[in-house]
Amino acid sequence: MHAIQIDRHGGPDVLAVREVAEPTLAAGEVLIRTTASSLNPVDWKTRAWQVGPPLPATLGWDISGRVIASNDPARQVGDEVIAMSAQIATGRGTWADLVALPGHLVTAAPVSVPLSDAAALPLAGVTALQALRTAELTAAEHILVIGAAGAVGGLAVQLAHWTGAHVDGLVSRPEHEHAALELGVQHVWHRSDDLPNGRYPVILDTAGIDASAALAPGGRYVSIADQPLPDVPGACKSYVQENAVDLAQLAELVDAHEIRLRIADRYPLTDIRTAHERFEAGGLLGKILITF
Ligand SMILES: NC(=O)c1ccc[n+]([C@@H]2O[C@H](COP(=O)([O-])OP(=O)(O)OC[C@H]3O[C@@H](n4cnc5c(N)ncnc54)[C@H](OP(=O)(O)O)[C@@H]3O)[C@@H](O)[C@H]2O)c1
What angle do the packed helices 151-163 and 122-134 form, to 10 degrees? Predict the structure, then answer.
């Protein structure tokens, strides 16, 4: 089978499509024939930085596909599923024709979108859901989502809106304002200097900037970014944990048309280097899918 691997860290040129051995199936695992994956920032960081499992390693966290063998009574051959692997911790990358994953990480794919598009949901969606939970966002509260047009930010906007919160967004450029408004943002900013002091009881930062001056006294400031937290009371980081229950809730929200998956572009696995270059150029309004 084919897998996208690295055997050293570096630029997109270190990515290689290789013939590798098919995975064997352990107790409780399911074997998935991959339909699609997506690119997340962690993928290029694992490629470029000295992080991740021992090399050579197969990259990729997201997967959508069909079960072709199962040692998990909850999953049958033919099931259309999605999952998020913890690639850095386990070394089990999803950028491969066949992927074996513990059944407890796998959930049914949403039925209202093509199976390939469902690969846009797992990592970004679970991150957004868990970050809003960390923020303890409640209905009618006012939240500012920083990076509102991004992958996690765009899903966080939709989830916060679904919760009943009043959602404002900060985007990186004026041409992203319309996209944020379409997702449910009520007021959109594109310059952090314009943010009103002390307005927001909740701020979710997905871009790693210091917008703490906009936090209301006693507010909660949650960041998923790599950058250090601003030095304000109530600031904390949220780190995504793979969780199929959260993923199932997100799939239900997709099918209920409460959250919309945005696809910016699709690349076959053989074009993985071009996909990384496009991803790192930024300015995307949706996910980049890798198709198998
Ligand atoms: N802690 C965790 O568990 C966890 C989980 C998932 C992701 N992450 C991290 O969270 C970050 C976001 O992930 P993602 O998948 O959402 O990435 P993404 O799709 O690239 O989204 C980031 C968004 O922030 C925007 N942005 C950049 N600078 C900005 C600024 N100064 N003001 C407003 N918006 C700005 C970007 O716009 P442009 O594209 O125009 O620059 C982009 O729309 C990444 O650093 C990722 O590694 C952490």
Answer: 50
